[in-house]
Amino acid sequence: MNAPVDAVLHDVLVPRALLRDEAGFGGTFAGDCLRGDLLILEGRARALQPGTPGETPRIVLPALTEAHCHLDKCHTIARLGPVGGDLMAAIAAQREDKANWSEEDLSRRARIGLTEAQAAGCTVVRTHVDWGDTAEAPLNWSVLTGLARETAGLTLQCAALNGIDQHAEDDFCDRVARCVARDSGVLGAFVLGHERLQDGLTAMIRAADKYGLALDFHVDEGLRDYNGLETICDALISAQFEGPVLCGHAVSLIDRHGDDLARILDKLVRARISVCALPTTNLYLQDRRDGTPDRRGLTRLRELENAGVPVVVGSDNVADAFCPVGRHDPMAALHLATLTGHLDPPMGRWLRSVTVDATASLGLDPVFVDGAAADALRLSTAPDLAGLVAGRAPLFKLTDVLRETVQ
Ligand SMILES: [Zn+2]
Asked: CA-CA distance, 376 to 379, in Å (whole number)?
């Protein structure tokens, strides 16, 4: 990257929640940030020094992590014809579109998605990849794992997505897991009131242990009386599975209350599960009715956070049958979660959901600002953290800014 080895960036704000050692970094308190001149030594952020505050400090934060998207489905909306309906209608519409999934088509659309994610400030992306009916790796898996190998400046994780009942069948799960491990992928499943959930979980945990894989679940994506989440917790606790495990959606948790909710939250902590809220797709597909919905398709963000469950926010579907709008931008997803989940300022702790907590939930080392390499950091001219979440200013690469200001 040819980043300057040593530099000083005048008058910046660093969110305190994105520092590993807040007390040792220097700077002065400015709300939920520290303020000062950022010292870069040997290409790494080392300290905030006293400086002369200007009128508009700039915000420095880690690059973003997109923890949950679907690069094989994205950007198909223009050819789908009329869509609209619930989750099952979206699944059916997208299944029909698979007839168009050639190598060229998949690669072209996925590259558009990755370009969007990188422009939004991401250096890590996990995409789910529909697996299909047989245990052999499908074309979309080869295309996306191929992209993962060749995409510079970005870590792309591919998570195989099967129905959990498939994993319950004979050696299906083991055969998929072997392919997934060969391509450094993640083992995933769709869980929505399936009959063979328990058997599927047993097979997945066994395979994940055997091949050293992370697990990822689409779980309880519905405003109905689902509780696959607790069954997943029980299975992981009883197997003493080490993780990492990310559970996406968990929409039906919104209908759990009191002791019932407290019990599930406690199990999530003990099972060391991170929960990924996916507001765009859930708000678009849940509570479908003839008129305007009056319920929110959203998991219990605030209760999870208060209970100590790492909360992650992702973009999920983009311009496809599940979500005709949206974009690959976790900060935009966090903006939507802020409005729909009433995530109040100070916003620093919620920024963890698209940075450090998101990265750790994928089994990767989180990047905190203190000690981070300059090319793992981003800079924004937004006036404060709420403005940052609102997307009031784009994220620039810190290395680009340093090139212009190096002394
Ligand atoms: Zn998804």
From this structure: 11
What pLDDT is stored for residue 406 in this prediction? 53
**145 C-alpha to ligand 1 centroid (Å):** 18
- Which amino acid, residue 359? T
Name the fold adopted by 7-62+368-405.
Answer: Urease, subunit C; domain 1 (2.30.40)
Average pLDDT, rounded, for the chain? 94
Q: What is the CATH number of domain 64-361?
A: 3.20.20.140
Residues spanned by CATH 2.30.40 within the chain?
7-62+368-405
C-alpha 248 to ligand 1 mean position (Å): 7
How far does residue 404's CA lie from ligand 1's centre (Å)? 39
Can you give 222-245 as a three-state secondary structure string? CCCCCCHHHHHHHHHHHHCCCCCE
The model scores a pTM over 0.70? yes
Task: Name the one residue in this structure whose structure tokens are 């994105």.
Answer: 18
| 39 Cα: distance to centroid of ligand 1 (angstroms) | 40
Where along the chain do the CATH 3.20.20.140 domains lie?
A: 64-361
pLDDT tens-place string over residues 318-346: 999 999 999 999 999 999 999 999 999 99
| Rounded CA separation 405/217 (Å) | 44
pLDDT at 407 over 50: no
Tokens encoding 221: 């994506």
The pLDDT of residue 201 is above 60: yes
